[in-house]
Amino acid sequence: MGKMKYDDVFTVTLENRSKEMADNISKNSALLTRLKEKGKMRPISGGSKILEELEYGEGDMVWYSGYDTINYTPKQLFTAAEYALKLCAVPVAVSGEELLMNSGESQVMDLLEKRINNAEKTLMNQMSAAIYSDGTGSSGKEIGGLALLVADDATSGTVGGIDRSVSGNEFWRNQTVSETLTSSNIRQAMSKLYYKCCRNSDKPDLIVCADDLYSLYDESLTALQRFSDPKMADSGFASLKFKGADVIFDGGQKGYCPEKHMYFLNTDYLYLRTHRDRNMKIIGGDRMSVNQDALYRIIGWAGNMTMSNAAVQGVLINAVSSAGTGTSDKTGETE
Q1: In angstroms, what CA-CA distances link 232 with 7, 22, 28, 214, 219?
Q2: CA dihedral (22, 28, 33, 35) positive or negative
Q3: Residues 252 and 211 sit within 8 Å (Cβ to Cβ)
Q4: Of residues 323, 282, 321, the one with CA closest to residue 301
Q5: CA torsion sign, 119 to 121 to 123 to 125?
């Protein structure tokens, strides 16, 4: 193989893996798996902002009889949240020395596969961490995850361009419950938050937590109460059930859900919006280092996590101190 052959093989191998890579990243997270199942990974085609239309008002209904006048007063029933487009990239590099040391065709393919697999694992782990972030990482260049969308303090901060602290924007605040939790009271606290997140037929369908609260909930159950979802188990996630919602363990080694947090999510209103031209795609074309004997490619992604209804999302916080003693007097409850 000549140098151009290496370039071609490198590019073709990456291009062939791009869709598989995007699929595997979604399978690495229970939340992203659920969003994909429900068609909530909606692509975007362009623009500097990602818009999510929000329905926050109600129209007029008039009771009448006979020839009563049915009046209509125009109202603004919809607004839109605006989310910034965020970008990330992972370089995949092979040095000239490595190519010389693996000069056989099968050896080169094996080398490229190993480098691509490593890049995929990096993307999977970093994206799994980012979906719990508050968007301030990397100087604000990271996506805004659950720590932003379903915040501990739902009465402050700006989400999607809407200031939650402003009077009249109460509709854009998620629900919170903060209590000192034990295995004997966790189900009562979960019920409290669950009902606050319900609105007519809307209710949480996915509850994600780290090992601390998952263990408390597991310990609270008797054998007759312990139900799991075979579908989630088949996807590789440990799960239990709570009022029909899947309770997912996202802790342990390489688990990214923050301790003391249990997120109650209505995934009908959560999205991962990915730019259709930047979904784990090679960006910048063929590249060679200017001052190094190496060739490399860059795998890129662009998009953000978005939300169209905050009031049906919630977070349960274990108010026990980091030292394991004492309690917090913060109620954290938002109606």
Answers
A1: 40, 19, 12, 15, 20
A2: negative
A3: yes
A4: 282
A5: negative
Pair of tokens at residue 261? 């947090």
Q: Is 254 left (phi over 0), alpha (psi -120 to 50) or beta?
A: left
**Is-contact 131 144, C-beta < 8 A?**
no
Tell me the residue type at 34.
Answer: R
SS (H, E, C) 314-332: EEEEECCCCCCCCCCCCCC
Structure tokens at 140: 């604000």
DSSP β-ladder status, 245-249 and 206-209: parallel
Structure token pair of residue 238: 């440990």
pLDDT, tens digit, 9 for 90 and up, residues 173-224: 999 999 999 999 999 999 999 999 999 899 999 999 989 999 999 999 986 5
311: amino acid identity, one letter? A
Task: Give the residue among 205, 178, 173, 206 at the shortest CA–CA distance from 192.
Answer: 178
Q: Centre a 10 Å sphere on the Cβ of residue 103 and count the other Cβ atoms it contains.
A: 9
What H or E segment, with its residue span, contains residue 302?
Answer: strand 294-307
Q: What digits encode the pLDDT tens for the residues 248-294?
A: 988 666 678 999 999 999 999 999 999 988 888 888 666 556 667 77
Tell which residue, 28, 11, 57, 26, has the closest CA to residue 250. Answer: 28
Radius of gyration of the chain (CA): 24
- Helix (H) or strand (E) run with residue 89 in it: strand 86-95
Sequential DSSP letters for 245-291: EEEEE--STT--SPTTEEEEE-GGGEEEEEEEEEEEEEEEEEEE-SS
Q: Which residues contact 124 (CB under 8 A, 6 or more apart)?
A: 24, 25, 28
Centroid of chain to Cα 324: 29
Reduced to 3 states (helix: H, G, I; strand: E, B; else coil), residue 239 is strand
Q: Round to whole Å and give the CA distance between 258 and 293.
A: 42
CA distance 149 to 83: 11
